[in-house]
Design a protein that fits this description.
By secondary structure, the protein is α/β, with parallel strands linked by helices. The chain has 3 domains: 173 residues, 3-Layer(aba) Sandwich (Rossmann fold); 167 residues, TPP-binding domain (Rossmann fold); 171 residues, Rossmann fold. The protein has 24 helices and 19 strands. Its EC number is 4.1.1.47.
Length: 571
Amino acid sequence: MKRIPCMEAVVAVLESEGVDTVFGIPGAAVLPLYAALRTSSIRHITVRHEEGGTHAADGWARVTGNVGVSIGTSGPAGTNMITGLYTALADSIPMICVTGQAATDKLHQEAFQAVDIVEIAKPVTKWAVQLKEPAQAPWVFREAFRIARSGRPGPVLIDLPIDVQRGTCLYDPALDAPLPVEVPTPRRSLVRAALDLLQQARRPIILAGGGVVIGEAAEELRQVAERLRVPVQVTLMGKGAFPEDHALFAGMAGVQTHTRWGNAAFLESDLVLAVGARFGDRHTGDLEVYRKGRTFIHVDIEPTQLGKVFEPDLGIVSHARPFLKAMAEAAQEESAPPRAREKWSRRVATLRESLPRRDDFDDVPIKPPRVFREINDFFGRDTTFVTAIGLYQIWSGQFQKTYLPRRYLVCGQAGPLGWEVPAAMGVKVAHPERQVVAVVGDYSFEFLMEEVAVAAQYRIPFVIVMINNEYLGLIRQAEIPYGMNFAVELGGVDHVKVMEAFGCPGRRVEAPGDIRDALAWASKEAEKERLPVLVEVMVEREANAAMGSALDAIKEFEPLPALELAVDWSD
């Protein structure tokens, strides 16, 4: 066994774990690791802010399914990473953040930029650890990858004191390999129980959460749905798990990101088979309304997720893919679905046709739904969209169409402003052949707009579509019931000139008829110049997004059409 610098062993581990790109900012306390990276096959992209580095690694991880890596030095570099760690933990994204640290014999002396980042990071990671001995280096990193991938995926932080980084260890990469990751599979009896409950139901739906996307189980989901003729809904994190133009697509239920007909279908359902969904509060709303009259089967890879929000009628611990594969196989042995199931499928189709939202407005100022209509019409099915938090996320969830897994990326739970630009950069680095579009708000863009300079420097092209209402729109809408108006107006920033200052093109649109031409221009310009390109769409200043109780979300202050509410569900 050869003795080598322990950071060279770490880099060998990264390479063997499938990491081809890392995002970070070098600093004095992490230079031994950077020295080892110089002779590796790994591409390093130097970001402008450590939080931006974590979001870029997050975007890279979401589209590859592999573990993203972000690197920073000591002190504020680590604290700047906390938001990215929290975002990854909340959305089940595998990621490793590496921080440099002061020498171990100086940690108790308040040394320069010495902070106990391990204790700070523990609440927002699956594992936070400080390397104590050089000989541990390759094995700590191996375990970090295993933990990040296993069970419900999530982030890990590894803190590297400078004196430990300078050490050596015995290591032969030819003799080492990634640690195995356990994949929980369901017991046959539980699959049978779930299938029996589903077959007994007259108006069942399958609720596909982010676990279906993360678990690469979209094909198995489609097989189950088509064989049993069960409509499929998705959560916000599950968008892309099921094609939205499929005859069995049943929309999205929720109090913010939802379809009117999706809420209506959910309220009429009598059984919910939830796979890889965590029943977030923006999805469920009032639990009494959400649960009333429905049987729930909850399938999740994380045992403690079962019963966390409410007790299911049947709980199953399993990875999404083996569960759905077992269901598909069991369904093959079943006779044809009950005739009532076809009535239910037709009913969902009727709701879809009867309860659409308008998106064909020609008004000036532009109404936000029109922007998403143009986005849906212009960009192809394989386009990868990235969006964050605010009214534009709600409109995106309500109006944007998604057809393939890992093509709609959203920071759903933590919701950090500024996430989109660095995340889009990570996506494009991972899949340079794909069209990547970041849908942003004006305020969110300004949080980490310096990362545009990184994309320009490294020639990473993508389109930025900004929904600009010159307001903290979501806060303004939330203030209305309280009679307050603290949401500051956000004038004073010329975003097109900001892009030009970074060396990137930008265009402002103020009429709905000009949106498509601007999108076409931006798409061509981005690929031609190999740069991020901005389309800033000025929308109605005080436009609101539909949200509230499930019933309100169906009505949205419009008369409910006659839908033949009395339906005979008998065979």
